[in-house]
Amino acid sequence: METLPLQLSNAIDRELAPLSPDKLREACFELTQRYRQGLAIETQLHRQAYIAARLPATYGAIRQVFRRTEPFLNSIQSLLDLGAGTGSLAWAAADALPHLQRITLFEKDVELLRLGQHLTQNNLDPLQLAWCRDDITQAEIFPSHDAVVLSYVLNELSSKEQVHLLERAYQATDQLLILLEPGTPQGFGNLLNARNLLLKLGAYSVAPCPHLAPCPLAPAFKEGKDWCHFSVRIPRGKYHRRAKEGALPYEDEKYTYLVISPQPVPLPKGRIIKAPLRKTGHVILDLCTEKGDLKRVISSKSDGEVYTKARDSEWGDVWNEETKKK
Ligand SMILES: C[S@@+](CC[C@H](N)C(=O)[O-])C[C@H]1O[C@@H](n2cnc3c(N)ncnc32)[C@H](O)[C@@H]1O
Questions:
Q1: 109 lines ligand 1 (CB under 6 A)
Q2: Ligand 1 centroid to 269 CA: how many Å?
Q3: Residues 94, 124 contacting (CB under 8 angstroms)
Q4: Alpha-carbon distance 252 to 57, whole Å?
Q5: Distance from C-alpha of 275 to C-alpha of 317, rounded to nearest angstrom
Q6: Under 8 Å between Cβ of 283 and 311
Q7: pLDDT tens readout for residues 200-239
Q8: What is the pLDDT of residues 176-207, one digit of tens each?
Q9: Each residue of 175-210: b (16+ CB within 10 Å) or e?
Q10: From CA 91, how far away is CA 198, in angstroms rounded?
């Protein structure tokens, strides 16, 4: 479970307090419908619905990606957030990056930017936040930062804009370029194209792919059968629960991600790319491997420690053990 920092959930609650539950329910519904139709945020109510329903989800996904890339975060002092929205990244990074000093946030919607500024104000000291109102598809160059992040942004852009932006984002990356998208076929398709482009530009894989080979899920994806994605559980905040009347107090956010680097990094033997199937006496794991293929392994009690590791492993974890092929 990725829980929001208390200061952030309090700041969101204060922001939403003047709205009636009916109004917020209507706004959350409308925002979901708009996203389904490929439409972006337009009104102040959509923005309020965003911080009630979507900010916690993108925060949770970013926070989990930081957990999965922890060994590479120690030397990150500066972050560039392209399409920052209301600043989920700043909150997740403040928690996860021990040596982070400053974040530059680009956002084109001035009201979202103001809302993000308002939520973060006096809450993330001593981090320095520089908010810039700008259209990231028009930039010819971005200032270099240790890490550059595009979180849930590519799906709002055309294919041509995505290529232009990714090339410039990669040029500005000193250590890590982090891309997150909704865990839908469309989100995965965007990242598959981004991966192909970035590897051609000389980038190295950091996560989730434990290899530089073509994505082994691409053929199944092209047939509409499968795609690489992960899941993070997040609690629903007070106002989101009210807006969702009767629904569970948490939700599972499906996301897909890609972290690459201009420098090679050590890669694991494999990555667990589906929820482990825990059966009586054995566990089945679906892996993407260092060889660039897909492998289903089965670990039974007779495997001893390896079985214990398999039983305790989660969807998205790395897998470095030798296991029998199923
Ligand atoms: C779905 S929101 C994601 C916000 C934030 N990154 C997060 O993870 O919560 C997409 C954001 O990208 C911004 N955006 C889309 N196109 C943009 C552009 N051309 N220039 C700057 N920002 C853009 C939108 O205004 C919106 O705030």
A1: yes
A2: 34
A3: yes
A4: 8
A5: 10
A6: yes
A7: 999 999 999 999 999 999 999 999 999 999 999 999 877 7
A8: 999 999 999 999 999 999 999 999 999 999 99
A9: bbbbbbbbbebebbbbbbebbeebbeeebebbbbbb
A10: 27
107 lines ligand 1 (CB under 6 A): yes
> How far away, in angstroms, is 13 Cα from ligand 1 center?
22
Q: Which residue has the tokens 């939403």?
A: 16
Nearest atom of ligand 1 to the alpha carbon of 180: 8
Going along the chain from its start, the domains and CATH numbers come out as 6-261 (3.40.50.150), 270-319 (no CATH)
Among 12, 40, 43, 15, residue whose Cα is nearest residue 27: 43
Q: What residue's CA is closest to ligand 1, atom 1?
A: 152
Residue 239 tokens, joined:
């106002």
Q: Is the CB of 153 under 6 A from ligand 1?
A: yes
Q: Is the CB of 187 under 6 A from ligand 1?
A: no
Closest CA to 321 of 106, 234, 298, 31: 298
Residue type, 318: V
**Is the preceding peptide bond at 21 cis, omega within 30 degrees of 0?**
no
Quote the pTM value. Answer: 0.96
| AA letter at 300 | S
Distances (CA, A) of 243 to 18, 116, 260: 14, 21, 38
Residue 161 beta carbon below 6 angstroms from any ligand 1 atom: no
In sequence order, which ranges of the chain are alpha helices (DSSP H)?
6-16, 21-36, 44-49, 55-68, 88-96, 110-120, 159-171, 185-200, 218-222, 238-243, 305-312
Residue whose structure tokens are 């566990």: 283
